[in-house]
Every structure is written in structure tokens, then in C-alpha cells.
Specification:
6 helices, seven-stranded mixed beta sheet, alpha/beta
Length: 209
């Protein structure tokens, strides 16, 4: 993975308080600095800007030409960022229907109707029946759920991760964002993950080679 690098042309990131109440902005790529539709709510935990920037610096060119699948989309910041940086399609799964409506507004505002698909519903049920997903090009899969899921719904979440790992085409990447209390030894295929600390988060990377 490439080393993290600074982008001197990027505006300073908002503070922690600002991030909780301000619309997220796309950091890099063709849609850089475009804002996303956002309704502040306790249930939505947008990834911190500095964590998102570090994540995409670590992914580097691996995003280009992929299908970006954001399993707990929220504001859609991860999926939209991936599309901005070269993913050919985005799939945004969101279990909260009003939030899915907000995602659709972002899709329209960014002019991405032909490239981004919003799929409302409980994504944890994908572990039982995976919906149709492109199988001919690699995926980059983002798993960034509420952190409580790593304890309260870990069985369901692990099953979802396992199913996505089995279904992912060769060349795919999966990123799991957790907090520091999560034990990465619980992840499927223990030992095949690359872990990077980006406070307050820990990012776990898996590649299908």
C-alpha cells in the first residue's frame, strides 16, 4: 500500500464538532470539495475526514476501475469518495429509509444517477441472500457500521463479512473500520488482514489475490 501523503491544495478539515453538524465534503478526485446532502442525527456516524483521507491514501490506485460497495452508507461519503477517485460504479446500502432518501438526493445533486445505486434495507440480511452485484470487475467493500455492532451484532456482521469475502471477484479489497477495542483476531481468515491505526479508528484491510 502507498504511504500516506498530504494534499497541500485541500482546504483544512473541519474540527470534530464541525464534522458532526456540517455536510461532509468529498476530499479528492473529480468531485473534490463537493458537499453531500446531510441531516445531522445521532444514528449517523460519518467517518472522520482525517480517517477517510488516510484510508484512500492507503488504497491509492486500487480504487480505480472497481465497484465501490458501501455496506453501511450513512452519508455515502465512502462510496462517493471512491467514485470520485475512479471507481466505475457505487453501491450504497443503507438500512434507514429516510437516510436512503438523503443519499438519493446526493446522487442527483452530484449527477451520478448512471453510476451510483442506492439500496435501502437491512444490509445484514445480505449474509442470508446476497443481492445481484457485478461479478466481472473487482470490488472495494467498505464495512463501517455503528461501532456497537462489533459487540451487539457481531455474529450477523461477521457472517456478512464472510459472505462478501467469498463472493468478491479476484483483485477485490475489503476495509473494515472499527474502534480500538475490537479484537482483529475475530475477523474471518485471521492473519490475512493488514491493520492500520488511524485514531480514533482502526482500519483493517483484506485483499483477494
Amino acid at each position: 500500500m502507498p504511504r500516506q501523503r498530504r494534499n497541500p491544495d485541500r482546504s483544512p478539515p473541519p474540527t470534530g464538532d464541525d464534522e458532526a453538524t456540517s455536510p461532509p465534503r468529498i476530499i479528492g478526485g473529480e468531485l473534490r470539495r463537493r458537499s453531500l446532502e446531510f441531516t445531522p442525527a445521532a444514528r449517523t456516524r460519518p467517518m472522520k475526514d482525517r480517517v477517510r483521507e488516510s484510508l484512500f491514501n492507503l488504497l491509492g490506485i486500487d480504487v480505480k476501475g472497481t465497484v465501490a460497495i458501501d455496506l453501511f452508507a450513512g452519508t455515502g461519503a465512502l462510496g462517493f469518495e471512491a467514485v470520485s477517485r475512479g471507481a466505475v460504479r457505487g453501491v450504497l446500502a443503507e438500512m434507514h429509509f429516510p437516510t436512503a432518501d438523503v443519499l438519493r438526493r446526493s446522487v442527483r445533486a452530484l449527477g451520478l444517477e448512471d453510476r451510483v445505486d442506492v439500496r435501502p434495507g437491512d444490509v445484514l440480511l445480505w449474509a442470508k441472500r446476497l443481492p445481484p452485484l457485478p461479478a466481472d470487475i473487482p470490488w472495494v467493500v467498505f464495512v463501517s457500521p455503528p461501532w456497537s455492532f462489533f459487540s451487539e451484532r457481531w455474529g450477523e456482521l461477521r457472517s456478512l463479512i464472510e459472505v462478501m469475502m467469498r463472493a468478491a471477484p479476484v483483485g477485490s479489497t475489503m476495509v473494515v473500520e472499527a474502534d480500538t477495542s475490537f479484537d482483529p483476531a475475530l475477523l474471518p481468515e485471521t492473519g490475512s488482514w493488514d491493520t492500520r491505526e488511524v485514531p480514533p479508528a482502526v482500519l483493517h484491510f483484506w485483499h483477494r489475490t
